[in-house]
Write a sequence for this structure.
């Protein structure tokens, strides 16, 4: 393990570019096709199944707790019914096929077979050596899965581990800040970096009435102004949440070291940019709506 100092935001930037490539499969037609062939066809059911499959055939309570910002009633409409259509193992296999097809389409065969992809996989997997399982259910479940042999799938697997490791810690920071799942999304959207309300309603099960009620609660706490923008207190709270998330997620990047983190960030940014240019994400996904 290196003892060199790590720049405060280096881990956050690194995980962000890795997560960008991880997230491409959620918006890919390959995912619906592969999981649909396994018997799960509704878009919400597909989403819940692929991300929760590593946990085993869990019920709606466990999924809602682990995902945090989905409305329970939406989860319960599809979980545990999804496991009657396909086992978690079948879903994980279908997900792997979808990821493979998506990355081949977005990045191309030359990039997938490149020395840079193999190097990125090695670096990302090295970072995961310092991840911790305690109180991190989604990370811990995915950490029990085997590492794929092909470099691009190994890279995606490591990116998934680092995503869920940070995500689990982020939920702890949100709870400490007193934000429920929807309030967290409203404040994140207000930063201009979160999903638009349209996508929150489409994917998370909330509606305009729920959104307005959460907005009112946040105004009462002085976190949003009358226009729905973050107040000074709101900005400060979001910054503190990210700092606490960074603190809880620091170990993997300290383990990799400054040079390794910088190299992995550079490689990951190149892959993520190529995927973005190839149309990996909806144009109206991010912003204030």
């Amino acid at each position: 393990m290196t003892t060199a100092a790590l720049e405060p935001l280096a881990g956050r930037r690194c995980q962000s570019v890795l997560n960008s490539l991880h997230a491409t499969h959620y918006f890919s037609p390959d995912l619906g096709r592969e999981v649909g062939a396994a018997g799960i066809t509704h878009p919400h059911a597909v989403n819940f199944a692929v991300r929760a499959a590593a946990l085993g055939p869990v019920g709606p309570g466990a999924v809602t707790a682990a995902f945090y910002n989905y409305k329970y009633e939406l989860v319960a409409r599809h979980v545990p019914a999804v496991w009657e259509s396909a086992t978690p193992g079948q879903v994980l296999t279908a997900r792997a096929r979808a990821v493979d097809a998506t990355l081949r389409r977005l990045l191309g065969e030359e990039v997938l077979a490149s020395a840079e992809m193999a190097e990125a996989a090695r670096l990302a997997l090295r970072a995961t050596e310092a991840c911790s399982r305690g109180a991190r259910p989604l990370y811990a479940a995915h950490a029990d899965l085997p590492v794929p042999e092909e470099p691009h799938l190994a890279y995606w697997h490591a990116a998934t581990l680092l995503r869920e490791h940070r995500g689990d810690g982020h939920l702890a920071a949100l709870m400490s800040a007193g934000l429920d799942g929807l309030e967290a999304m409203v404040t994140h959207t207000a930063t201009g970096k979160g999903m638009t309300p349209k996508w929150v309603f489409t994917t998370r099960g909330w509606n305009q009435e729920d959104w307005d009620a959460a907005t009112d609660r946040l105004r009462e706490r002085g976190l949003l102004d009358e226009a729905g923008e973050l107040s000074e207190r709101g900005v400060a709270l979001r910054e503190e949440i990210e700092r606490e998330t960074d603190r809880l997620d620091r170990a993997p990047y300290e383990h990799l070291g400054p040079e390794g983190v910088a190299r992995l960030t550079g490689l990951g940014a190149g892959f993520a940019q190529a995927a973005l240019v190839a149309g990996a994400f909806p144009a109206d996904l991010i912003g204030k709506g």
